[in-house]
Amino acid sequence: MSEIRADTITASDGTSPVTLTKQSAAKAWNNTSADGTTIQNSFGISSLVDSDTGVQTHNVTNSFNDANTVPTFTVSNNVNQQWTSNLTTSSWTTRNYTGSAYDDVQIRTVCHGDLA
Questions:
Q1: Which of 13, 64, 99, 102 suits a disulfide with 80, CB 3.0-4.6 Å?
Q2: Is the dihedral of CA 32, 110, 89, 97 positive or negative?
């Protein structure tokens, strides 16, 4: 039986993250403010655009290989409908609708896919 114990694992250059093989990990995620204008915490996200009430565009630091990514998100409000749209290699848009109007809410989003 073998056992590996480590506090930090990096690539051979000593600074880059290791490459995962035969696994999938989130390549980007963020947590936005309730008004849709501020990134509160993130990984792999370069910026957030408050496109309109209830509509946010999440831009990634490193582009994906293609637009067939899998962004998913949750909201912290009573939103009847939520969906992603405008998938590109460098961004996706989230939309929140209450059933009668678009609404700005705090969003927690994550995206899986292969980086370019």
A1: 99
A2: negative
Q: Which residue has the tokens 């990134």?
A: 39
Concatenating the DSSP letter of every residue in 11-37 gives -TTSSSPPPPSS----SEEEEE-TTSS
Q: How far apart are CA 85 and CA 29, in angstroms?
A: 16
The two three-digit tokens of residue 78, written as one number: 């009573």
Question: Whole-model pTM?
Answer: 0.79
Residue 17 clears pLDDT 90, i.e. is over it: no
Strand partners for 115: 64
Sign of the four-CA dihedral 37, 83, 75, 101: positive
Mean pLDDT of the chain: 89
Q: What is the pLDDT of residue 50?
A: 94
